[in-house]
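Progress narrative, Year 2. Work on Small ribosomal subunit protein uS4 from Fibrisoma limi BUZ 3 advanced from sequence curation to structure prediction during this period.
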Amino acid sequence: MARYIGPKAKISRKFGEPILGPNKALQKKNYGPGMHGRGRKRKQSEYAVQLTEKQKVKYTYGILERQFRALFHRAQVKQGITGENLLKLCEARLDNTVYRLGIAPTRRAARQLVSHKHIIVDGEVVNIPSYSLKPGQLIGVREKSKSLEAIATSLSARNVKRYNWVEWDGQQMTGKFISYPERDQIPENINEQLIVELYSK
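Result:
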């Protein structure tokens, strides 16, 4: 499966929540997409519920199946609770951290900034969105990219919401990945235990 580039509203309606960002379509049509979207919902099997939760995480963070499987394996072998480790690793991705710092308005936009070499990590250009950050690493905007309108607009409209595991220096236009977040600090509505159960079958 290739990375999803279709309408965001369709995905938000599929899961019943704005997982790809605020969406007016979800407020107007709070039911699934397609001609049977309004129909009576059938009771989902246990497998279907678990699979839906996995798909939700993949769409939220923009991860493909092979990447997700590798990420889950890393979470399994890491010390701690597998489900929480998985979300921590998702949050430590470079594209997600660029989004959390407010450099980009969405994760999709953050992925594009990273791919187009506008982002540096510890002074070096990194163009791999899935790059896994380690605590203490510095993330910044490349010198010649600081005047980009997209970045300036995003930073000026930067959400006041602060995340405890990252910090941002507006003057230097650099951020720091302080530590992996705790589970209760991650705002996404995800039941990671269902994903663990899915992979343990």
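The chain is about 40% helix and 10% strand. The beta strands are 119-121, 124-125, 138-141, 166-169, 174-177.
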